[in-house]
């Protein structure tokens, strides 16, 4: 499905020394994979996701999507990108618009501008939006409500429903549980894992190692390198301790 091959991204400056944000990262995702991405702040998790979803071009290495090198521009690039969806930590919902309009925002790339503008005036594709809300256990009666009127948990689910409306093959999530209370975090994680049946896959950046049990794999980053890639059952407390240990300062022995 997705292959990141020997990926490097430069540009992080620490104490006057430029450090790679990613270095020598190779990661392969297959349909049905559910991968938890762990690492301390600054380890490279968000950078890896940005490379995976195409927002960031690597300095070195290759990105292969469904057997093809990822296109750099044009229609083929847009077609490839449409199959990769991202759930952001800040959700990126439009507060002033209705739930329906926010869900339809996932279709804008496929629609083009005329239909996108019509989305601001008329309720479009209501039945598809009803089905998306039901998939995330939300009342379809919320379709006409402005996002600003929803609770935090409802907004999380609307953001996930919008991701499903995109119909992606690969689901990426950048620490979507970080600001949630434990119950909401468990609920959203269960919903995300449930969506990753083949032909889909899930790569989720996680700041809570206690939640890795439901994933098929754990990938751990440290100083921009993959230092762990194993099933949760093979991850020891010592592995996690090493993953989150303080990085040595510039000039100290590595």
Q: Main traits of this protein?
A:
alpha/beta; 2 domains; 4-stranded antiparallel beta sheet; single chain; 9 helices; 24% strand; 254 residues; 6-stranded mixed beta sheet
Question: What would your notes on this structure say?
Answer:
This protein is an alpha/beta fold. The chain has two domains: about 1-85 and about 170-245, P-loop containing nucleotide triphosphate hydrolases (Rossmann fold, 3-Layer(aba) Sandwich); about 95-165, no CATH class. Helices cover about 30% and strands about 25% of the residues. It has a six-stranded mixed β-sheet, with helices on both faces. The chain has a four-stranded antiparallel β-sheet with strand order 4-1-6-7, covered by helices on one side. Strand 2 and strand 3 (about 15-20) form a beta hairpin. The longest helix is centred in the middle third of the chain and has 14 residues, at about 150-165.
Q: Outline of this structure?
A:
The model is unreliable at about 250-254 (pLDDT under 50). The chain is of the alpha/beta class.
Architecture per CATH nomenclature, i.e. the level-2 architecture of the largest domain: 3-Layer(aba) Sandwich
Alpha-beta classification: alpha/beta
Helix fraction, binned, reads 25-40%
Lateral arrangement of strands in the main beta sheet: 8-9-10-5-11-12
How many helices? The count is: 9
The number of strands is 12
List the helices and strands and how they pair.
Layout (H helix, E strand, L loop, with lengths): L1 E8 L2 E3 L2 E3 L2 E8 L4 E5 L6 H8 L7 E6 L2 E2 L4 H9 L1 E4 L11 H6 L3 H4 L1 H7 L6 H10 L16 H14 L4 E5 L7 H13 L6 E5 L11 E6 L2 E6 L6 H8 L10
Parallel strand pairs: 5-10, 5-11, 8-9, 9-10
Antiparallel strand pairs: 1-4, 1-6, 2-3, 6-7, 11-12
